[in-house]
């Protein structure tokens, strides 16, 4: 099947799922539905795909939307961020320690697989290390992708029951299309520059940085066209689900139970820390949760848009998480390597 046809069918499957889930009024249903239906299709054998070019366009749209949703009082609230950043650092230690122990002792994973599966983020970095002989790359990627998908699916459901609060950063009137086109062009360029500089999630962070600067300086106001936001959600759902393409159901089930338990532990730890931090800062609990969540920046940023939170806060904490993991992952790998012999290097699966 030609890649263009596979891409089109992937987007159609995502759109059908998005419309079906959003019918029930679940927050973030457009994103959640697409991710769910494409994941099911991919695990059933459909060759779901999202080309890199289209993926980058989606990332620019996510960054643009996140910039449009930045809270006007973001600069005044930055003084509260050290509290939540401290909670984030402590949360990461607890997640990696508890999940690593559970995967080793309960599911009998080797130390490399257990701890590399427990790190919440930096998948490309983790897979590069796994390909050198630390852990089982197939099991690691299944657990890591499963974590992002589960968080994308269940975070909106949690928003129905937790005291999440609400904030809408965008104005009620639609922004001028000429301004939108100019800002989108600037977002794409800055995103390209960030990517060339090897920054993580370069297109998302670069486009958000440009859109945020335009908004805080008064050059970018109003709400984005709803059709643009909805199409972005459908595309992101398709992208998340397509990461399961090429995995057999047997491979998935081999690591899925351990991944489910690890994800449940991660969600529980994140929720405890978010609720605790909410007593010390004047922010919605849901916003804090998305900032501390171990999901991908693109996915959690999109959920922040859907739920109407301050996306500058969410992005800053996810960047901080990646920086913390950049230091922590090599340290843990060195400890693991010092305690067990290396396995033969195996080919890293495509992580897209």
Description of the structure:
- The protein contains 15 helices and no strands.
- By secondary structure, the chain is mainly α.
Please give the share of residues in helix.
over 70%
Mean pLDDT across all amino acids: 79
Count of DSSP-assigned helices: 15
Uncertain parts:
164-171, 341-352
Q: What is the subunit organization of this protein? A: single chain
Strand content: under 5%
Major sheet summary line: none
Note the run of SSEs as H and E.
HHHHHHHHHHHHHHH
> Nearest-angstrom radius of gyration?
19 Å
End-to-end Cα distance, whole Å, is 19 Å
- Total beta strands: 0
Structural class: mainly alpha
Q: Rough shape?
A: globular
How do the strands and helices of this protein lay out in sequence?
Blueprint: H1 3-22, H2 29-43, H3 52-68, H4 74-77, H5 81-105, H6 111-118, H7 123-130, H8 137-158, H9 177-196, H10 202-216, H11 226-242, H12 249-278, H13 285-292, H14 297-307, H15 311-339
In short:
This protein is an all-alpha fold and 352 residues long. The protein has helices at residues 3-22, 29-43, 52-68, 74-77, 81-105, 111-118, 123-130, 137-158, 177-196, 202-216, 226-242, 249-278, 285-292, 297-307, 311-339.
């Amino acid at each position: 099947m030609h890649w263009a046809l596979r891409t089109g069918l992937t987007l159609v499957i995502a759109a059908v799922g998005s419309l079906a889930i959003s019918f029930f009024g679940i927050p973030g249903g457009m994103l959640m539905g697409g991710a769910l239906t494409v994941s099911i299709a991919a695990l059933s054998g459909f060759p779901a795909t999202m080309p890199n070019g289209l993926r980058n366009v989606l990332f620019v749209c996510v960054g643009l939307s996140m910039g449009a949703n930045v809270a006007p009082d973001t600069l005044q609230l930055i003084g509260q961020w050290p509290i939540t950043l401290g909670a984030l650092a402590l949360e990461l230690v607890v997640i990696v320690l508890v999940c690593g122990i559970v995967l080793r002792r309960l599911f009998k994973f080797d130390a490399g697989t257990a701890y590399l599966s427990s790190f919440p983020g930096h998948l490309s970095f983790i897979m590069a290390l796994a390909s050198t002989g630390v852990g089982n790359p197939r099991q690691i990627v299944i657990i890591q992708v499963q974590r992002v998908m589960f968080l994308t699916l269940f975070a909106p459901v949690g928003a129905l029951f937790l005291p999440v609060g609400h904030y809408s950063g965008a104005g009620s009137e639609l922004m001028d299309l000429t301004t939108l086109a100019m800002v989108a062009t600037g977002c794409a360029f800055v995103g390209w520059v960030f990517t060339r500089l090897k920054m993580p999630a370069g297109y998302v962070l670069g486009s958000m940085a440009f859109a945020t600067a335009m908004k805080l300086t008064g050059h970018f106001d109003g709400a984005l066209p709803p059709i643009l936001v909805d199409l972005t959600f459908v595309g992101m759902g398709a992208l998340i689900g397509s990461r399961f393409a090429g995995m057999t159901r047997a491979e998935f089930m081999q690591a899925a139970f351990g991944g489910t338990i690890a994800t449940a532990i991660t969600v529980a730890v994140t929720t405890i820390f978010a609720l605790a931090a909410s007593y010390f800062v004047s922010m919605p609990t849901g916003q804090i949760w998305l900032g501390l969540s171990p999901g991908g920046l693109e996915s959690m940023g999109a959920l922040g848009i859907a739920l109407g939170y301050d996306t500058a806060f969410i992005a800053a904490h996810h960047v901080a998480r990646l920086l913390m993991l950049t230091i922590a992952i090599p340290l843990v790998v060195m400890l693991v390597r010092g305690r067990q012999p290396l396995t033969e290097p195996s080919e890293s699966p495509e992580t897209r």
